[in-house]
Specification:
alpha/beta; 5-stranded parallel β-sheet; 45% helix; elongated
C-alpha cells in the first residue's frame, strides 16, 4: 500500500484488495509471501540509494555499528546487539521499524496478524475459506508491528509462545491439541512484524529453546501438544556481555542460529557524546548551557569510564551526562526563580547534580571506601581540568596563580546579579578578561559561568585548591605532585 492511499480508498475486503495495483493478479492461497526480512531489505536498499537517513537519533555509530547492522539486514539475518548499558541498543531495535512498509493488510477479527491471501493460522485459514473475497481486512501500521519484551528469569513459554485455553476449546468444540484452542503469546502476535527481546541472557534455557525451535523448525510443543506455526517474524535481540556470566547465558543452539553478533560501544569522542546528550536531555526553554559547561558535563562520563574506582564491566551509561545535564539546568532555573539570577548553567549547578552521578556508578572496593559523593566530586574536578586543558591549557595564568599563592582566597558569588558577580571576580587579576575570552559573549551571566569554569579548571589541573565555592592556592602536597606535570 502506498503512502498516498487515503482512508477512504483503502480496501476493506480481500476482493477490494485484489483490485489495487499492488495486488493485481494475485489469488487466495497462491503461496506468494513477502517475508518481513524481504520487506526490510527492499526499503533499506531504497533508502541507501536515495541517501536517506537510516536510523534517526542514533549518533556515533556511523563507522562502526551501523555498517554491520546494514549488512545483517541486507543479508536477511536475525541479529543480536551486545553492549553495556546506555549504548542505544533498544533505540536501534526500535528504529528498524522505519524500514517496514507504512501499512500492511491483515485479516480482521483474529488475534494473530495474518496475511489475507496466505494465512498461516488455522483461524485465518478458516475465515478465508468461509468468506472468500468478502474476507474483512484491516490495515496494520508499522509501529504496531514491533513487539518488544524485556527478558526476566520468570518469563515463561506461555508468555512468549502461548498456552492451551480449555475454555476456548470448549467454546469452539475443538480438541486441546487444535491450534484454534491456543491462546497466543507475544511472539505469534508479532507475526508479520519484528519481535525484540531485550537482555536475552536473562531468559531461562527452556524459553530460549522454544524461541529457536519455533523459528528454525516451525513447531513448538504446548503442554505436550505439537503445534506448528510457520511465523513470519524478524527476531532481534539485545544483551549485556556481562550477562553471560553474571546472571545467565545464551544457550548454544540459539546463539548459533543468530545470524550476526554486533557490538555496540560508548561515544569515542567528546563531541559525539555532547551531541547525544544535547539530543536526549530535556531542559526548560530559556535555560542556557554554555559550550564549556556542556563539555565539562560530558567529560565526567568519560572520566568515570576510565576511573579505577568504578566497575568497568557494569559500564557508565550515557544516561549519566543526560541526567546530569537535566539536573544542572533545573538547578540553574531554581537559582533564577529564587534569586533573580539569569538561568545560565554554571559549575555550581553541576555540583548540585551529584545525584545524577552517584546513581549511575557501580563502585569497586576502593570507591566504596571513599564514598560515592567523594568519587563523584573528584570526577567533576578531573573533568573540569581535562575540559579546560583541551581548549585553554596553554593560557598564561601565572598572574592569577601568583595572587592565590600570596595567600588570597576567593569565594565565588553563588547567586544574585550577574554584573555584581563579574565585579567581584575582578579582584582576581586577569580573571575577568580571561572569562570574557572563554565566554565569547557579552552576557554577564555567561561570563560569570566562564569565570567559575576557569577557576574549576585550574583546580582540576591542581593549580588551585577548592573548598565548596571557596578557591585558594593549592595545598603543598598538590604543588609537589604537580611538579613539572602540568607546567
Amino acid at each position: 500500500m502506498t503512502a498516498q492511499t487515503t482512508a477512504q480508498t483503502r480496501a476493506r475486503t480481500l476482493g477490494e484488495l485484489l483490485q489495487t495495483p499492488e495486488y493485481a493478479g494475485r489469488t487466495p492461497f497462491d503461496g506468494q509471501r513477502r517475508l518481513v526480512q524481504d520487506e526490510v531489505r527492499d526499503n533499506l536498499t531504497r533508502k541507501l540509494r536515495s541517501g536517506e537517513e537510516l536510523f534517526p537519533g542514533v549518533v556515533g555509530y556511523d563507522d562502526t555499528v551501523i555498517p554491520q547492522l546494514v549488512n545483517a539486514l541486507l543479508a536477511r539475518q536475525n541479529f543480536i546487539l551486545l553492549g553495556l548499558r546506555g549504548q542505544a541498543k533498544s533505540r536501534i531495535l526500535r528504529a528498524i521499524t522505519g524500514l517496514l512498509d507504512e501499512e500492511v493488510p491483515v485479516i480482521d477479527g483474529v488475534d494473530m496478524p495474518d496475511d489475507p491471501l496466505n494465512p498461516i493460522g488455522a483461524e485465518g485459514q478458516h475465515l478465508l475459506e468461509a468468506h472468500g473475497l468478502d474476507l474483512p481486512i484491516r490495515w496494520l501500521p508499522r509501529d504496531a508491528r514491533y513487539v518488544e519484551k524485556l527478558a526476566t528469569p520468570d518469563v515463561t513459554v506461555a508468555d512468549l509462545i502461548g498456552d492451551v485455553d480449555p475454555i476456548k476449546a470448549a467454546r469452539l468444540g475443538t480438541s486441546l491439541g487444535d491450534v484454534r484452542s491456543m491462546h497466543f503469546g507475544l511472539l505469534p502476535r508479532a507475526n508479520r512484524g519484528i519481535f525484540a527481546v531485550n537482555e536475552l541472557a536473562d531468559l531461562s534455557p527452556k524459553v530460549q529453546v522454544a524461541l529457536f525451535n519455533i523459528l528454525q523448525e516451525g513447531d513448538v510443543q504446548i503442554k505436550g501438544y505439537p503445534i506448528r506455526l510457520e511465523l513470519d517474524v524478524m527476531l532481534v535481540f539485545s544483551a549485556n556481555p556481562e550477562d553471560y556470566t553474571a546472571r545467565g547465558k545464551i544457550v548454544t543452539p540459539l546463539k548459533d542460529r543468530i545470524g550476526s553478533e554486533i557490538r555496540t560501544h560508548y561515544p569515542t569522542d567528546i563531541r559525539l557524546g555532547m551531541d547525544i546528550t544535547a539530543q536526549e536531555a530535556v531542559k526548560e526553554e530559556g535555560v542556557v548551557v554554555p559550550p564549556f559547561i556542556a563539555e565539562l558535563i560530558e567529560d565526567i562520563a568519560f572520566q568515570a569510564r576510565e576511573d579505577g574506582r568504578i566497575d568497568k564491566l557494569s559500564g557508565v551509561s550515557q544516561r549519566l551526562p543526560i541526567s546530569l545535564m537535566e539536573l544542572a539546568c533545573a538547578n540553574a532555573e531554581r537559582r533564577s526563580l529564587v534569586s533573580g539570577d539569569s538561568p545560565v548553567v554554571r559549575v555550581t549547578d553541576v555540583y548540585a547534580g551529584l545525584p545524577a552521578i552517584t546513581g549511575k556508578m557501580e563502585l569497586e572496593y576502593e570507591g566504596e571506601l571513599k564514598g560515592a559523593d567523594n568519587v563523584a566530586k573528584d570526577l567533576i574536578r578531573k573533568a573540569a581540568g581535562a575540559a579546560y586543558a583541551r581548549s585553554y591549557g596553554s593560557a598564561d595564568t601565572r598572574e592569577l596563580e601568583k595572587w592565590f599563592d600570596q595567600g588570597n582566597v576567593f569565594r565565588f558569588p553563588q547567586g544574585g546579579d550577574a554584573a555584581a558577580a563579574i565585579k567581584a571576580s575582578s579582584e582576581v587579576p586577569g580573571l575577568s578578561d580571561f572569562a570574557a575570552q572563554v565566554a565569547q559573549s557579552s552576557d554577564d551571566a555567561v561570563r560569570v559561568s566562564a569565570a567559575e569554569f576557569i577557576l574549576e579548571g585550574l583546580y582540576g589541573r591542581k593549580k588551585l585548591s577548592r573548598a565548596e565555592e571557596l578557591y585558594a592556592a593549592p595545598e603543598p602536597e598538590l604543588k609537589r605532585e604537580r611538579g613539572g606535570r602540568w607546567n
